[in-house]
Amino acid sequence: MKKVIQNIRRHPMVHIMVIPVVAYYLIFHYLPMYGVLIAFQNFVPSRSLWDNQWVGLMHFKDFFSDIYFTRLIKNTLSINIGLLLVGFPMPILFALMLNEVKSKRFKGFTQTVTYMPHFISSVVLCGIVVNFCKSTGLITYILTLFGFPKTNLLIVPSMFKPIFVGMNIWQNLGWDSIIYLAALSGIDPTLYEAADVDGAGRFSKMWNITLPGIAPTIVMLLILRIGRLMSLGWEQIILLYNPMIYETADVISTYVYRRGLIQFDYSFAAAVGLFNSVINLILLISANYISRRVNETSLW
Amino acid sequence: MNRRALRKPRISVFSVVNTLLLCIIVVMTIYPVLYILFASFSDARMLTKHEGPIFWPLGQPTLAGYKLTLSNPNILSGYKNTILYMIVGTSLNLVLTSLAAYALSRRHYIFRNALMIMIVITMFFGGGLVPLFFVIRTLGIYDTRLAVILPTAISSWNVILMRTFFQSLPEEMEESAIIDGANDMTILTRIILPLSKPIIAVMVLYYGVAHWNSWFNALVFLRDTTLFPLQLFLRETLITNKETAADTTSQMLEESFTRELVQYCTIVVSTFPIFCVYPFLQKYFVKGVMIGALKG
């Protein structure tokens, strides 16, 4: 305590400077965390938080026995794991491919082009996808060449996941590779020279030098990605889905949005949202724990 | 580089396949963009009927679609609002992010770790959408411009990025400033920030693009259409195919013919500014990712 007072006396300004920052976090992050208490109530907006009827875990129980519960969990996991399995390794592969390119100009050109889609806004990107997936759209046309029926793809439940994953890869392949390219440029070139002297081939060098060199980056990003496994991409899903494909496209976060802010089921939606956050946190902590055990890379 | 080239003069199968694959990726990335561009200059009726790829505007290249698009008053009002949110929002972002990053990078700030923990927690856990909605309502900023600007006033990732940069700055100048009796605000504005132009550029770009793209907060926290950012109007034009209340059937028919053309023109009009500046700014964005990579 004495130390704190001394610190404030000696450097008063820095304590004043953080006030707006702390205020922001308290109001827009910690106040909602406190507000999540409405998940345990039958919340009526006209009453203050403490005047509402407490119902304990009722909304959670309701959610677990909701007819959509299994569907939501299944979709959330399936879409995000699909995104993880395909979308996560592709930028790594792409970075490795770019790394092998000798011509600086070709490499630069490829990078400029593939980073570009990252700057298309979600609304526009989804608008493009909606257009391309119409029955006369470009993607539909290409698929009809392979024998698919000519129809609006966004009303076919089985098509949603591939479209969504494909769209994300198209937008982020290049951008997500930057961090790996940075890691690749950090690998000591003498290692490659030594391997050349030993007569190592291209793939042997890739396996024994390049991959171990970027492994910490890969693991770190993987942990972060798993920590957001339940919360990625739902703004885009809201833009793309429609009641005809809720069966495969409705995820927990979109359900929260519909139940909470469209149907005004505040407490129930808050409970579902809290459930989602908690699962996310558990995933992050376990991923971090496993990683620390297995290869000593961890976020904390 | 040269030595290696001398040793291996022949072109390997690997590099041919590799280059070919990369070319395919480039084409797949760029073609949809070209398709939209060609479509936007096309004849409305031909475009509506057309199926399959386009390699040149259909029919006589025309600006008719753009005329229709720009005659939509919402696009203009959306643009104005978005620019306002970008300027005000980004300025606020910069001030708060610098303050937070500065405090986090000072060894003499006793609550440094506490503040860091407070920030990091919010990166992985949150109350969720519904409680935030009520915070906005309780604050009385629902359906005002502040509801779009304030909730995203700080991005924790960017704070950490900036802190990492501040930590990498040499400490000597700052020490002499402290001896001269300068306070923390002076150190930040007179010493640290002038040395931080690269990271400030990165921040302006990151925050700026985030404001440009954001639409969900506006959807949830705004009602008054005169406050809507561009993206919300884009959503209306591109995605929500709501039935427009047309007076006559002929007008409806005409609209259904031009709808697709207008959609493509809208995409171009709304994305053009970012694409124009992007090649010049690319290196700053990339730099941001690199700084982030150092600390993870």
Can you offer a commentary on this structure?
- The complex is a heterodimer of chains A (300) and B (296).
- With 300 residues, chain A is mainly α.
- Chain A has 2 domains: 13-54, no CATH class; 59-102 and 157-295, MetI-like fold.
- Chain A has 16 helices and 2 strands.
- Chain A has a two-stranded antiparallel sheet.
- In chain A, α4 crosses α16 (266-295) and α10 packs across α12.
- The longest helix of chain A has 30 residues, at 266-295.
- The radius of gyration of chain A is 24 Å and the shape is globular.
- Chain A starts with a helix and ends in a 5-residue tail after the last helix.
- By secondary structure, chain B is an all-alpha fold.
- Chain B has 2 domains: 2-71 and 241-295, no CATH class; 73-227, MetI-like fold (Orthogonal Bundle), CATH 1.10.3720.10.
- Helices cover 74% and strands 0% of the residues of chain B.
- Chain B is built from 15 helices and no strands.
- Chain B has helices spanning 2-7, 13-40, 44-49, 64-70, 73-105, 112-124, 129-139, 146-149, 156-167, 172-179, 184-195, 197-213, 216-221, 230-238, 249-295.
- Chain B is globular and about 75 Å long.
- The chains are: A mainly alpha (300), B mainly alpha (296).
- Chains A and B meet through α1, α2, α3, α6 and α7 of A and α2, α5, α6, α7 and α11 of B.
Strand content of chain A: under 5%
Calculate the terminal CA-CA distance of chain B, rounded to whole Å. Answer: 30 Å
**Fourth-level CATH superfamily of the largest domain in chain B:** MetI-like
Considering the protein shown, what is the CATH homologous superfamily of the largest domain in chain A? MetI-like
Radius of gyration of chain A: 24 Å
Report the major sheet of chain B.
none
Q: Mean of residue pLDDT of chain B?
A: 87
Q: Taking all residues together, what is the mean pLDDT of chain A?
A: 90
Q: Sketch the topology of chain B as an H/E string, one letter per element.
A: HHHHHHHHHHHHHHH
Note the total helix count of chain A.
16
**Largest sheet features of chain A:** 2 strands, antiparallel
Which CATH C-level class of the largest domain in chain A is it? Mainly Alpha
Tally the structural domains of chain A.
2
Low-confidence stretches of chain B: 242-248
